[in-house]
Amino acid sequence: MSGAPKSVESLLALYERRGDEHYGEDVTQRSHALQCAALASGDGASDELVAAALLHDVGHLLGGDRPTGWRDDVDDDRHEALGARVLASLFGTGVAAPVALHVTAKRWRCAVDPAYLAALSPTSRATLVAQGGPLGDTERERFAAHPSFRDAVRLREWDDAAKDPSAPLRSVREHEPLLRALAARPGPAHP
Ligand SMILES: [Fe+2]
Fold first, then answer.
1. Residue 105 · residue 155 · CB < 8 Å
2. How many other C-beta atoms lie within 10 A of the C-beta of residue 64?
3. What is the DSSP secondary structure assignment for residue 70, as one 8-state letter?
4. Check: CATH 3.30.450.180 for 8-184?
5. What angle do CA 46, 48, 50 make, to 5 degrees?
6. Given 11, 49, 79, 169, which is the most exposed site by the fewest CB atoms within 10 A?
């Protein structure tokens, strides 16, 4: 992956450079990321999960513009896998795994919660199709047994709620100390 951030500084710089890009539903990528992190923090999430909430859509900032003819209901950008790869090398699996699974968490929730499925926005409904639709029985069981299942489902809840167009605009730099502390940790989860 050329141009992928290899340090906390280059990650923050990426958000400063491209954070004003449209996330959808009337919020920018940066506002969505900050709202998601604030919700996680307000719910007493661990530092790793707050970082995952902040950075869960970094894959969108790593890709180029969507090619002509892109269709949300057909084409899947696999942004969660792209982002998780970058985050795994910087912070380890505690941050990367919930990010890798936040699309699966949406597909799981759609399978187990009909009201959630019915309430999806038109955009989210279109991308659900491209993402493979609601999980089937076997996939559901496998996901529920994953060690990061709960974190991924919580992340998805914050993700879905982090779309307030009137949220105050702040800087991702306010999370710099937390990200630097996580990146500096030794341990088996951190390659
Ligand atoms: Fe998101």
1. yes
2. 6
3. -
4. no
5. 70
6. 169
Please state, in angstroms and rounded to a whole number, the distance separating the CA atoms of residues 110 and 142.
Answer: 16
Task: Tell which wins on pLDDT, 74 or 7.
Answer: 7
* CA 137–ligand 1 middle distance (angstroms): 25
pLDDT of amino acid 68: 65
Beta bridge partners of 83: none
Return the amino acid letter for 39: L
Q: Can you give the residue ranges of every domain in the chain?
A: 8-184
Tell how far the Cα of 32 is from the centroid of ligand 1, in angstroms.
7
Q: Phi/psi of residue 147, each to 5°?
A: -60, -25
3-state class of 32 per DSSP?
A: helix
Q: Is the overall model pTM greater than 0.70, yes or no?
A: yes
For 156-169, write each residue's pLDDT tens digit: 999 999 999 999 88
22 secondary structure, DSSP code: E
Q: What is the tens place of the pLDDT at every residue in 14-49? A: 999 999 888 777 899 999 999 999 999 999 999 999
**Owner of token pair 């730099």:** 173
Q: How far apart are CA 16 and CA 10, in angstroms?
A: 10
The angle at the Cα of 67, spanning 63 to 101, to the nearest 5 degrees, equals 40
